[in-house]
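pasting for the record
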Amino acid sequence: MLDNLKKILNEDQDPKAIEKITSKLSNLLMSNEEIGYIAVQKKPAVTILPDSIVVTNKRIILCKPKNLGLSMEFIDYDWDDIAASFVKEGILGADFTFSTKSDLTHTVDYLPKNQARKLYTYAKEQLDLLKNPMLNVPIVNSKMAEDTAFEEVDDTDPIEEMETEEVTSFTEIVPATIYTSYEEPTAEIATLTEKGLGDLSQDELFAKLQNYKKLLDNGLILQGEYDTFKKEILGYM
């Protein structure tokens, strides 16, 4: 607030009037509410009790002295209620006017032209923010945004390597149900798994070898395993 007030006082403001207004407003401001600008009437004749208008990031506040300056009347309007704002400059000053969505119009006249322009600019910025909320999003440093966009984060868990164990038995890697899940064998081939190789006929041994070849072609057993089975079967043929 102090920085804003210093800026205001550098624009032909009456320090006593500004100090009086801010002291009255100190207990009226809401949380996260900041004064954006204050404009005070400056009539051609001596103005003992000037009206003033205060704009904050929350609302417009009209300040009118009452009871010979012993008290102050405050009338405020949220930015959501403001429909538009206008400035009309004349020879002796400028008028700042704003209208509400309920068709009420308020004017503060005899404002210094520079103050009226600053008042209008701030009001326009607040109304633009209401129409385009994204304008209120802070701009991120482009270099920082670029670094963040291309930063790769590896959040995957490391894969633990496990020692493999050589499998020498066909039943350890291929369950008996593999025959029915891949291709429905005939009753004759299904019976082959229940017999020893020495009990099989030549046709049965050949059928068994063909079955292993199908498993190899479909990646269900390894080439080394197939060669072992093939060698064993051929020993009985």
